[in-house]
Amino acid sequence: KEGVQPQRKEINVSEDEQVLLENLLGKMGKKFFVDYYEPYANGEDLMNIIPVGVYTYSSTQTRISTMRRIFRENLNLKALKYILSKDNSKLDDESIELATELIELG
């Protein structure tokens, strides 16, 4: 007998969602989203995780509130899918790999 197959639900991003995600991810940064996706999803306080001095305080607040909005509107997996679908993604291989793993975890 075969083992349990993971549910492979297709993630479709509408045009309206693409425009919104482009705007939100542009505000926050795709790498920031991927790097802090898991800690945020696990309920950790990003203010305690993000190294001091990397971003200004207000920049950090903006990025976290944008992250909160993406999750609140249930666009987190669509955002990952969107990031990976961009051919001209400037993300490093490690970030792309992480984004792929996060989608698979769902």
Structure commentary:
- By secondary structure, the chain is mostly helical.
- The chain is 65% helix and 0% strand.
- It is built from 6 helices and no strands.
- The longest helix is centred in the middle third of the chain and has 16 residues, at 57-72.
- The chain starts with 14 loop residues before the first helix and ends with a helix.
- The relative contact order is 0.19.
- The model is unreliable at 1-6 (pLDDT under 50).
Question: What are its keywords?
Answer:
mainly alpha; disordered N terminus; 6 helices; 65% helix
Q: Helix share of residues?
A: 55-70%
Instruction: Work out the number of β strands.
Output: 0
Number of helices: 6
Structural class label: mainly alpha
Q: Could you give the distance between the termini?
A: 25 Å
% residues in beta strands: under 5%
What is this structure's SSE topology?
Layout (H helix, E strand, L loop, with lengths): L14 H14 L1 H12 L4 H4 L7 H16 L3 H10 L7 H13 L1
Helix pairs in contact: 1-4, 2-4, 2-6, 5-6
Give a brief rundown of this model.
The chain has 6 helices and no strands. It has helices at residues 15-28, 30-41, 46-49, 57-72, 76-85, 93-105.
